[in-house]
Structures are given as structure tokens and as C-alpha cells.
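Entry 14. Structure prediction run on the chain below.
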Amino acid sequence: MKTFEVTSVNISDKKGTIKVPVDKIQLTEIGIPGDAHSGMWHRQVSMLGLESIEKFSENAKRKIKYGEFAENISTRGLKLFKTAPLDKFVSGDIELMVTQIGKKCHGTNCAIFREVGNCVMPKEGIFVKVLKGGELKSGSFFEYHPKILKIKIITLSDRASRGIYEDKSGPLIEKITREFLLSHNRHFKFNRLIIPDESLLLQESLKEAVAKHFDIIFTTGGTGIGKRDITPEVVKPMLQKEITGIMELIRVKYGAKKPNALISRAVAGTIDNTLVFTLPGSQKAVNEYLTEILPILEHALYMMNGLELH
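Output returned:
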């Protein structure tokens, strides 16, 4: 388990000003009582690593003091900006959840920007929300618990399930999604399954994945109008909240050039805390669908995990 040290705790009662190191802070459901950023929102507490502070000190040609970048918690031992929203930091009873990486710079309203003409917080500072509170002091240690996304890929194909031909769409979904998640500093685990086009098998496979708390389920195959195409009939009644917009966009966008794409009956939505996306079986369609789905994935995950950013 990766651990990192708290090197300073800092507060201020006004936004855009330098924070002052203190002996200890009390973390509560609103953040740090008395601090300018406290409140019932996602940017309750700011954090910045000594790794970033020292790098900026070299550029500024002077030693930067703790709190000068308006960070509440200064740390050492982890590149905080390499974490991702929904990751957690744990110190004893304290539990913090990462909610945002970087921020918009206050520019001339920021004390450090006025002096140096630049600031490190917009790129390398992060914000967290307090899930469980407690007292925090300099010298404390946090454990880093990255959110590990569990992703199930179910290929529906009578022939692939019998070994008549190789499943290529399932591995392609994993490859494209893996590359996307790596670019967003995500941790993840994939699980792939091939089943014939059978309603009961698909239903049971979905129920099992939801029960095992998979974050995302992708199916591929069975979204057309052939006699064995049963994916939408099985999935749609199981959805608790349907996400109609994404599939409508894909059908219209690609159907405008290739009318055959309009025949797809793919659906998307949620079952409990799991996102479900049904994709057609062709590799070309997998590429097209993921091109539109992946950009909305981060925000969908935030919403599914109770992280409201608006």
C-alpha cells in the first residue's frame, strides 16, 4: 500500500490568499471549519505535494513556504496530480475522496500569481471531499487507495461461444477502453466472457456482474434485428435508468453516412451502481460507439458515485 506524509496543515479565512500553517486541523463534513473553502461542495479541502512546491521554488528562485499556494494540506511522497477523482486517502479514521485535479487560476486575484506571475495549483494541486473526519497534524501519514474500476465485457455470439471463430470485438473493447483509462490515471480490472445468443444466459451474466459490483458492463453483439439478436430485449427491462441520449447520438451521427447504422437497437443505462452499454458486434461499430461513449464515462462515474460537480 502506497503511503505519503503530511508535511504541513494550513488555513485561511479568505479565498485567493496565502494560507497559514497551524498545529492541527479538524476535518468535518464541511471540510475545515473556519477555512475559506469549507462547505457542502466538492472542493472542501485543497492539497499540494512538496514535489510540486520544490519544482516551483526553483522557477521562482526562492523558497516557497507551506500554504503560499493556498493549499490546506501539504504532502510528500506521492504525486497527487497523478491520482484521479474517486481515489481515496485514509489516515486512521479520516477518509478523503479526490474530487478534482487542478483548477482555474485566479490570476491577479491570487497572491502567489501577483508575485511570481505563475502558479502551480491549477495543474498540480488537487481537491478532496471529507468522507470521514478527524484531527490531522503535520507528520501524519495517508494511505493511497486508488479507485479500481471493475469492467465486465460480455460477447454474445453463437459461433464464438462454440469456438468456430475468434472473438475480436471483446478484446477490442478492452484495448480501446484500457488506453482511455490509462490516459486518465485510472486503475482497473477487466473480465471478459463469451456466451451464445441466449436470453437467460445474458440475464444471469448481467445479474452476476451487478452483484459482484462491476462498475461498467459492455456487451457486444445481438443489437440488430436478426432472429437471434436478443440483447436489447434482455437489457432494457433490467435498466433502472436508461441513458437514451448517447445511443440516439450514435445512431444519428453514423446513420447519416451509413443508413445501416440506424438499424442498431443498442441501449445504455444503469442497474444499481453499474453502468451498462450494449454495443453491436462488428469491430468497426465498436470503434464508433466507444468514440462517443468514452468521453462521457468519467462524468457518468462521478454521478454514479455521488460526486456532483455542478
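The longest strand covers residues 3-11.
Filed with the rest of this week's runs.
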